[in-house]
């Protein structure tokens, strides 16, 4: 864009009108830029899915998962804060053919994700039927929403949000979130026998 110049004493009405049009165009561009401002954060609520959160914010769920370093987009925690900073709002639509193809792909991906989520939820419900006391059930609900497959991007897994080092210290192997709910409870009780409620500084109050 050329730099602004000092006004000369004589200008035709046409040049004045052209200057006003360009100024109006600049204001429109500025307003459009302001409208493309990014969102900030979103706190996950019960029943939320990543695709629904992304759709509500006009974003792609894959981009949202990448920005938040989610290893498994199907596993998000109630109360977890997802950053929306850097996720752009939906832009102008593409050509009709491209849009139709893209919509088909998105729907196919969403159906696949939904089927996978339903399978995971079904497994979670059956796994959560493990017999445990009211106190331990409250701890599990507090830590992971009662989901044996819960994964926190910070590096905590399963019903009782073990980190890998602690999980191994009580005899566990592999990923805690892939172990049965019964094994997770058994390891949690073993950890409690060793260290009391200290490994769960907030949710451990139910065990006191």
Supply the key terms.
208 residues; mainly alpha; 49% helix; disordered N terminus
List the helices and strands and how they pair.
Elements: H1 13-35, E1 41-43, H2 50-56, H3 61-67, E2 81-83, H4 96-127, H5 134-144, E3 151-152, E4 156-157, H6 164-169, H7 181-195
Antiparallel strand pairs: 1-2, 3-4
Helix pairs in contact: 2-3
How would you characterize the overall build of this protein?
This protein is mainly alpha-helical and 208 residues long. 49% of the residues lie in helices and 5% in strands. It is built from seven helices and four strands. The strands form two sheets. It has a two-stranded antiparallel sheet. A two-stranded antiparallel ribbon has the order 3-4.
Task: Work out the oligomeric state of the chains in this entry.
Answer: single chain
Number of helices: 7
Distance between the termini: 69 Å
What strand line-up does the widest sheet have?
1-2
Shape: elongated
Helix and strand pattern? HEHHEHHEEHH
Broad structural category: mainly alpha
Q: Which strand-content bin applies to the residues?
A: under 5%
Largest sheet: 2 strands, antiparallel
Percentage of residues assigned to helices: 40-55%
Let me know the average pLDDT.
74
Which runs of at least 5 residues are low in confidence (pLDDT < 50)?
1-38, 122-126
Q: How many DSSP-defined strands?
A: 4
Our Rg estimate from Cα atoms comes to 26 Å
Short description:
The protein has 208 residues and is mainly alpha-helical. It has seven helices and four strands. The chain is elongated.
